[in-house]
Amino acid sequence: TFAFGTSLTICSGGSVPALPTTSSNGITGTWSPSVVDNTTSGTYTFTPTAGLCATNTTFSVTVNPNITPTFSFGTSITICSGTAAPVLPNQSTNGVNGTWSPATINNQANGSYTFTPNAGQCAVSTSLTVTVTPTVTPAFSFGTSLTICTGGTVPSLPTTSSNGVDGVWNPATVSNTASGIYTFTPNATPQQCILPVTFTVTVNPIVTPTFSFGTTLALCSGSVAPALPATSTNGITGGWSPSAISNTTSGTYTFTPSPGQCATGTTLTVTVNPIPTVVVRGDTSLYDGNLMPSINFTGTPPGAVFNWTNSNATIGLGATGTGSISSFNVVNRGESPVSGTVTVTPVANGCSGSPKTFTITVKPLNKEVFVPNVFSPNGDGKNDFLFVYGNYIQKLDMKIFNQWGEQIAALTNTTTGWDGKYKGKPQPVGVYVYVLRATLTDGRTVNLKGSITLVR
Questions:
Q1: Would you give the distance in Å from CA 105 to the centre of its chain?
Q2: Torsion angle of alpha carbons 171, 176, 178, 184, nearest 10°?
Q3: Is this structure's pTM higher than 0.70?
């Protein structure tokens, strides 16, 4: 027996043992072949010296070839600066495990990367040479982005960059009405490391400035006009011309946006309306039941509306109204004069003028019932009839008697009088008596007795 046993497996070029002429158990002899070859597999035979009680033995040597690890990327690659570099795997495509140094490819600099197989494998180290080619980015005078207003100026897209790279654009023409991204693709191979670039165009819409007062404004002459702000409600800054609103003269005011904004100018039309006026009648006094004639107000400007109020509706006029006042019968059933103050306010185009006033005074009538004590029915057209007088008689019953107590006439209203006749015959001159009962409009009853002298 021998220390190295009966077999050995090595890698080509690996260490092999010397073949001793005496075994570890004292048997002498010879080997054939006498030296182990570390490059080729073989069987080596030990023959004991003649005369020894020993048998032959063999030593089998297997020599495995050394494998060079292979990888999908080969032994050299060229990459573009900044692009993705391949990952360095810990196992080759032909099954060799090991480690890389450095372990990661730097995509910014040239370098050499060594793969060292793990121990116990018949494999040799290998290396990867990485060449990093600088990346070229096509450059253009307009840069990589542009923001414009709708309808603004846009550049043409050249087929050669300012640093000499040829290529094509997609789309080929820049729109000045819609935002978009335009891609330049170089006419180059990947090995030239020329990158495509994009040109981003943002097209902002044209904004019309808006203001809280709108585009038209009506003012009353002399009223407070709003200030003209330097910033619109939708954020546009600019200036006005004229810069302040006149509250005495109509006009147009123009807002011009400051440069650099996607905005158009706008105008404000201001109409200054005159303060309306009204002409009213003078103070008026009437008696209860009289007709107050219609009142037609006049004033400026044409088309003005006249709103009126009455402080005392008991005079027969409503509390409020608009326009002319129709004729009406005034009312005062009291004992003292009453008044109503009419206040008229002119209004036109939303502007109110100074109110004007006038007073209607209604005086009460006599509330007594009166019977004349003499009349002369002689046909001269003067005092020919006897009437009962009273302003508020609603119902009348009057009987007239002669000196013998005979009823010779009766009156039932104030519009029909006694003509001094009885049964169509004129009555003699003399004194007659009457009895009267009258019911007034306020509900009171008046009873009268008296005498009447008939003269001719």
A1: 56
A2: 20
A3: no
